[in-house]
Structure formats: structure tokens, C-alpha cells
Design brief:
Blueprint lengths: L5 H13 L4 E3 L29 E4 L8 E4 L8 E5 L5 E3 L1 H4 L7 E7 L8 E6 L14 E6 L2 E4 L1 H4 L14 E4 L8 E4 L10 E5 L4 E3 L11 E8 L8 E7 L4 E5 L5 E3 L15 E4 L8 E4 L16 E5 L5 E3 L1 H4 L7 E7 L8 E6 L12 E5 L4 E4 L11 E7 L8 E6 L4 E6 L7 E8 L14 E6 L5 E5 L8 E2 L4 E5 L10 E6 L5 E4 L6 E6 L14 H9 L9 H6 L9 H9 L4
Parallel strand pairs: 2-32, 29-36
Antiparallel strand pairs: 1-28, 2-3, 3-4, 4-5, 6-7, 7-8, 8-9, 10-11, 11-12, 12-13, 14-15, 15-16, 16-17, 18-19, 19-20, 20-21, 22-23, 23-24, 24-25, 26-27, 27-28, 29-33, 30-31, 30-34, 34-35
Helix pairs in contact: 5-7
């Protein structure tokens, strides 16, 4: 509902007086202001055009500044806005090979081929005009030095449902921890089997949806890969409509098993957007799913958003109402982002429905105040109140805090600069790398980053993952805020990167207020200290004979990644000695 109760207003105002969250609309003059999302209703099945909208953010041309890919929806060409590094963007879609006219929708960006530049997967309903859409029209734009080639058909990911045109969100993750990025794609049709998982086999993708798990009957909107069980292997979470959201446990053998009830998830009535973070700071990753909140509760099912608080093993307790984030109106996209750099991840949710009680409802910032949220709206500057679908994060001006992109269905693309006062608070932006020469997937997907600050008992963690949002993909960086306002200026911070390979990199004194590029350890650098030598042989010997891949020490010592620690791993270390 639109109105806030007096108690919430009082709490929000009191906290805002201390340090307000300030978002400034800087769309005008940015080069994004002429964009309008314009879905072609005749190119999509039924009435699905009103669910459409997607954003993809990454540094596509390799100049260090985040760029923006936005599908138009079918009436005109897609846009690729290249960041000029001075607060402005220029559309270079035609010159870079992505200016197609089609009913494009969900976007997920990652370096799927491990060549060092970011590729784009874009779901599409195609170009039909019969209100049915077309099967097999998804696009996988391989990035070759800033120019793109569609290789979806050649690599086997152009089609999801074999019978119905479906095109929702997508996400990349390393299902088997083999260093390749696999792809999950959602389809909004319960009977069309449009929710798919494709295994990356190097030269092509293999549809493994039927291999040991099933996601049929799921009105899928957005998938997300993240390790909720703390065994190193990512689970697959799916936000889906009509009480069909799913959680699938990674079996550590290349398959997934349905575990929704086991994990205490899936109670959201109309799951749409999804994001993850350690919202209560207990050391386990939590999940937030947007849904519909009605002033008059529905006769059955949960009313509003759900917050699944992970108890440490993947089993969750749903606590959205008590934590203050249940009512987001007709919710769509959501992202976890520390807007005020206090170390606690806030949630930004966009919403909209041009009808009933939801007309003109504001977008919301749920400010995280120690694990409990205060709902803020237009007072932050996020005064859109439109039929918004997507929100994505990026540091477009590279000033160390994260800014927001918001896309309105059949409407504009808005850019909000984060101008929140810092008042002694510090930040880190990390670009993690894996791929060639390592045992980790590109972007460090699957890693867990921990920051400990000298003189403070607080520990800030981030799970490096893909899939947060609604049919969108944020800039692939790790962002951490550090609250130093209560004491002396922070002098030292210890950063630990727990890679999915089991290797660990430690920076005992990492510079704050800085952007760092952190590469995954080489294959034979078992202890992650940057050199291959006697300590690595010792680590292999200490794990000799181990086969349990849920154990980090075993995965680190399994240099050959063949499932057992033995003489072949010692040989592999010796082959790279001194490197």
C-alpha cells in the first residue's frame, strides 16, 4: 500500500536526520534521457509485454567504466550505451553489433568463454507479429574486443522451451566448480518447460535440465546462483509466480535436487525479483524475494515480500514482516546494496501496476539498520512512482559508492547518482578474476569476500554471485562499505577471498577507499599466497586421500580437480614450482 504508518515515518525521519540516503536523478543530459522502453505487444505471447524489461551492466569495451545494454522490447533497436567517463553515455549498439530489432527482454552478463571480456546473454521472444512469439530466438553475444557476435544457435542456447516462446531472466554460475560458467534461464510458462540449465562444455553448451532435477510447473521470472549451504557449490534459486518459486540444492555431482520445502523457502505468493545478502550479519547468505502486497490480504498464501534468513545450513526462517520489508506494493526488481556505506546491505525495490491500489506507488529503499529495515521512498530522491520493472547497481562515476539504474516498462531509463553523505565511512570496490590459468570461474563467481576492520568487531561479507534483480544484471564488482564514523579513522583492513576452488587469498592490510583488481590463484598455488612451492606440497600431503569436495582443504589440494587428492596433485604442483 502507498501510505506509511506514523511509527515507521518517525523511525525513518529520526535515522535520516543522522545520515540521510541521498539519490540524485542525473538522467537529464546523460545521454540516457532519450531512451524509452517500447515493447511490441504483437511479438510476445498473450499479454506478457507488461512484464517486460531488462538491463545489463558491465565494462563491455574494457576501458574500466561500466556500460549499459538495454533491450527496447521490439519496436526499435536495442541500445548499448558506452560510458564516456564524465557522466555521459553514447549509444554504440550499431557499431558494436547489438542493434537488433526484436522483443528482447532478460539480460545476464558474464565472461562465459573466459577470454577476459564480458559477454551478453539476452532472452528474446523474437520478431513475430501474431501475438505468439517465436521459439529459439535468445541471443548470446560473444564479446571480441568490444564488438559482438551472436553465437546462441551455434553454442546451443538459443532455445529454452521447445514449444512456447518464453523469455525471462537468466544467470551464470559454476554448477560443477570446473571453472566454466553454466547458464540458468527462466521462462514464464508453467506448461512449456521453459526453465532450463545449460552446462558449459567449453566449445558449446549442453541442456542438462532433465539430468536429475526438474523445474517444470514453474512460472519462472528470475534465477540466481549462490551457495546457501556453505559447502562451496552454488544452489539454484528461482523467483516464480503463483507460489512456484523453487530452491534446488547442488548435489556436488553436476545435478540439482529440489529442496524448496527443506530450505523453508517458496512461500512467496507471487515471486518476481530476487536478491541475496547477509542482511542480519550472521555469516550466512539470506534471500529476498519480491511479491505483491495487497491492502486486503488474499484468501490464501503469503501477502507481500519474503525475507528468507539463512540459519547457516541453507535452512531459512521467513521474517519479512517483523524485519520491516514485507510491503513493497506490486514488487518487481530488487537489489542488495550498501547505499550509506555502513557495512549493512540495504534493499532497493522497484514496483508498479497501473491499476487499483498500486497506481502511483513509490519505489522503495529499505534501509538496513542492524538487521531491521526502515522503508524509505521519495525522501531519498528515488521519487519515480512509475510502473518500474528493473533496478541494477553500478558505480558509473567510479567514486566508490553504488548508483542505481531503474527501467520503467513502456517508459524511461533513469540514472540515480548516490550522493549519500559519507561522514567518515569508507569503501572498497573489487574486480575479481578467474578463468584461464586458475581453477575458478570468471569474475570470481562463487567466492565469498570477508572484510575485517582493525579495532572493530564487525565483519562484512559478500557472496559473489549472478542473478540478483529482475531480468537484469548489475555491474560485476564486489562492493563493501566500512563504517568508521564511531571511532578513529580506519587505518587497516584485512580482506579475505575464499575462492570456490577451496584456495584462499588474504590481504592483511588492504587500502580502503580504493578499487582493486584481484586475480584468483593459479591452479597449483594451493594455499593462495601467490607462489608455488613447498607450502603447497605440504597442503596436498595434509589432505592426502581426501574425496569430500564439501571440504575447502580437499578442494584446494585437488589441483587436478579429479575428485581425489593423490600423487597426481603433487606432480601438478611440482610442474609449476616457483611460478
Amino acid at each position: 500500500m502507498v501510505s506509511l504508518c506514523a511509527a515507521v515515518v518517525l523511525v525513518a525521519a529520526t535515522h535520516a536526520d543522522a545520515q540521510s540516503i541521498v539519490l540524485t536523478d542525473v538522467t537529464a543530459g546523460s545521454g540516457l534521457d532519450a531512451f524509452s522502453h517500447n515493447p511490441n505487444a504483437l511479438a510476445v505471447p498473450g499479454l506478457l509485454e507488461w512484464t517486460m524489461g531488462g538491463i545489463g551492466v558491465a565494462d563491455f569495451n574494457g576501458d574500466g567504466w561500466p556500460d549499459i545494454l538495454v533491450p527496447r522490447g521490439g519496436v526499435s533497436t536495442d541500445r548499448l550505451f558506452i560510458n564516456q567517463g564524465k557522466g555521459t553515455f553514447v549509444n554504440e549498439a550499431a557499431a558494436r553489433g547489438v542493434a537488433a530489432v526484436h522483443a528482447g527482454n532478460g539480460v545476464s552478463c558474464a565472461d562465459f568463454d573466459g577470454d577476459g571480456d564480458v559477454d551478453i546473454f539476452l532472452t528474446s521472444f523474437g520478431t513475430a507479429t501474431d501475438n505468439l512469439g517465436q521459439v529459439g530466438r535468445h541471443r548470446l553475444y560473444r564479446n571480441d574486443g568490444g564488438a559482438f557476435t551472436d553465437v546462441a544457435v551455434a553454442l546451443g542456447v538459443a532455445a529454452t522451451s521447445p514449444v512456447v516462446s518464453t523469455a525471462a531472466g537468466a544467470a551464470w554460475g559454476d554448477l560443477e566448480l570446473d571453472g566454466d560458467l553454466d547458464l540458468a534461464v527462466c521462462g514464464y510458462s508453467a506448461s512449456a518447460n521453459g526453465n532450463r540449465v545449460f552446462r558449459n562444455d567449453g566449445g558449446a553448451f549442453t541442456d542438462i535440465t532433465g539430468a536429475g532435477f526438474a523445474v517444470q510447473g514453474t512460472w519462472g521470472f528470475q534465477p540466481l546462483w549462490v551457495d546457501t549451504t556453505a559447502d562451496g557449490f552454488p544452489e539454484l534459486l528461482i523467483a516464480a509466480d503463483f507460489q512456484t518459486s523453487r530452491a534446488l540444492r547442488n548435489q556436488r555431482n553436476g545435478t540439482l535436487a529440489l529442496a524448496t520445502e527443506e530450505f523453508g523457502m517458496g512461500v512467496d505468493r507471487n515471486g518476481m525479483g530476487i536478491c541475496v545478502g547477509d542482511f542480519d550479519r550472521n555469516g550466512a547468505v539470506d534471500t529476498y524475494v519480491t511479491s505483491i502486497f495487497s491492502d486486503v490480504p488474499p484468501p490464501a498464501g503469503f501477502n507481500g515480500n519474503t525475507l528468507y534468513l539463512n540459519q547457516g545450513t541453507g535452512v531459512c526462517v521467513q521474517d519479512a514482516e517483523a524485519r520491516g520489508c514485507v510491503d513493497g506494493g506490486w514488487g518487481w526488481g530488487a537489489v542488495a546494496v550498501d547505499l550509506d556505506l555502513d557495512g549493512w546491505e540495504d534493499i532497493v525495490e522497484v514496483n508498479g501496476r497501473n491499476g487499483g491500489e498500486w497506481i502511483g506507488e513509490a519505489e522503495y529503499v529499505y534501509r538496513n539498520e542492524g538487521g531491521v529495515f526502515t522503508r524509505l521512498g521519495a525522501q531519498t530522491g528515488l521519487a519515480l512512482a512509475a510502473d518500474a520493472r528493473c533496478v541494477a547497481t553500478l558505480d558509473f562515476d567510479r567514486d566508490g559508492d553504488l548508483d542505481l539504474l531503474v527501467l520503467v516498462n513502456s517508459g524511461p531509463l533513469k540514472l540515480y547518482r548516490n550522493d549519500t553523505p559519507r561522514a567518515g565511512r569508507r569503501w572498497l570496490v573489487l574486480e575479481l578474476g578467474g578463468g584461464a590459468g586458475t581453477r575458478c570461474a570468471p569474475h570470481g563467481l562463487g567466492a565469498v569476500v570477508t572484510c575485517e576492520v582493525e579495532g572493530s568487531a564487525e565483519i562484512v561479507r559478500r557472496w559473489v554471485h549472478s542473478g540478483s534483480g529482475f531480468q537484469s544484471s548489475s555491474e560485476p564488482v564486489v562492493h563493501l562499505g566500512v563504517d568508521a564514523s564511531a571511532g578513529d579513522k580506519v587505518a587497516r583492513a584485512r580482506l579475505t577471498v575464499a575462492w570456490p576452488s577451496g584456495q584462499t587469498t588474504v590481504y592483511p592490510d588492504i587500502a580502503l577507499d580504493a578499487r582493486h583488481v584481484i586475480a584468483a590463484p593459479s591452479c597449483a598455488d594451493v594455499n593462495g599466497d601467490g607462489a608455488v612451492g613447498a607450502p603447497d606440497v605440504a597442503a596436498v600431503l595434509a589432505a592426502w586421500g581426501a574425496t569430500d569436495r564439501a571440504q575447502r582443504a580437499m578442494r584446494a589440494a585437488d589441483v587436478q580437480a579429479d575428485g581425489v587428492v593423490d600423487a597426481r596433485d603433487v606432480t601438478a604442483v611440482l610442474a609449476q614450482w616457483g611460478r
